[in-house]
């Protein structure tokens, strides 16, 4: 049995996709045009690590038509590559997997959505075409990624209400057919309050995917963390104190978003800066603008985790942990990178579990170390998040993790040899995630044992214990 099918069977056994165990994964199709180890296609997707995978992106036309953005890649007609059909074939390997597609994204902008949302006939046309597209290809759901209502050229005074009307029309078309409707939204209050009627949105969608990243970046005056979990002493103004995961989640909750619909988005990429002074490197230091680009993504100010971990291995970067905001950054000369790693994503996944949110979302899987070039296996970050969201976890740590984290397990004598997953030498049903200074204690469910060969829980007769 191939390792992919074996891993898939295993994760199918231990997962039931309950209401609070959702792992949404965005798949950026443009990664197929990257070179070398950055090239990512449907064949690179593990169909068992996510509960939902979102094909990104299609577009929206001013007349309400659904728009294919890359006909050569997406479709089979005219000798196209038929990527959508290949994507849908993932369900042949894992029938439990939910496959969705998204319209929008940053590059699609706001004006097209705004033009359609304000016109009843255009909304109906769009909703009808989305439904037909789902039925034609067999999609399980549709994701609206309007970035952002009332902003970036949209109608400031009208988009918030019109967005609700658009979602209502989509809901009325999709829900009777059992097709999921989700929405990707800005996280921070300063942006969300402009764009969203949160109680009304919550009424019409199945899940709300909170894009809790890009909270700081090279567009700011000073270096900051891309997706800090908590605020720090440097955050002095009301807006600054909004720019963290904790504040964003609680804003959405108190504004009417149900916990069982709120999905916390987490980044599999980092933001890079060029420091003004190599001796002033702490969060809040001055910078000259966007930093180095990744070798695969080729965008100044941005690097995928796969690019970051490869660079960290090949050069003498210093990793610094920011204790208040619970996230790392890297320094090398005047280069500064804010990113998430297994330690910070472990804390975010625990945050989701502690609050009882509906699950996690990853943007986006093609920038994880999907090949395993950095020595921690394929998809190391996605694996960490998925394992916590979809199973019970207790924690042992030498540092304070978060205000809500508690230990529910007696400490063991196990000492982490390095970062990674390790089985308890005395109990084969128990294993540990070692991340930086922290150690997290897991138990396999349903009488399964931890298999050191696949780093997953497996049937006892298949485990050497």
Automatic annotation (TrEMBL):
Going by the record, the broad EC class of this enzyme is hydrolase
Presence of keyword NADP: no
Residues in a coiled coil are none
Source domain of life is Eukaryota
Indicate whether Metal-binding appears among the record's keywords: no
Catalytic activity, per the record?
Random endo-hydrolysis of N-acetyl-beta-D-glucosaminide (1->4)-beta-linkages in chitin and chitodextrins
Q: Which keywords appear in this protein's UniProt record, sorted alphabetically?
A: Carbohydrate metabolism, Chitin degradation, Chitin-binding, Disulfide bond, Glycosidase, Hydrolase, Polysaccharide degradation, Signal
MF terms (GO), sorted A to Z:
chitin binding; endochitinase activity
Q: Which Gene3D superfamilies match?
A: 3.10.50.10, Chitin binding domain (2.170.140.10), Glycosidases (3.20.20.80)
| EC number(s) stated in the UniProt entry for this protein | 3.2.1.14
One of the GO biological process terms: polysaccharide catabolic process
Q: List, alphabetically, the GO terms of the cellular component aspect.
A: extracellular region
Q: So what family is this one in? A: Belongs to the glycosyl hydrolase 18 family. Chitinase class II subfamily.
Q: What is this protein called?
A: chitinase
Give the source species: Bradysia odoriphaga
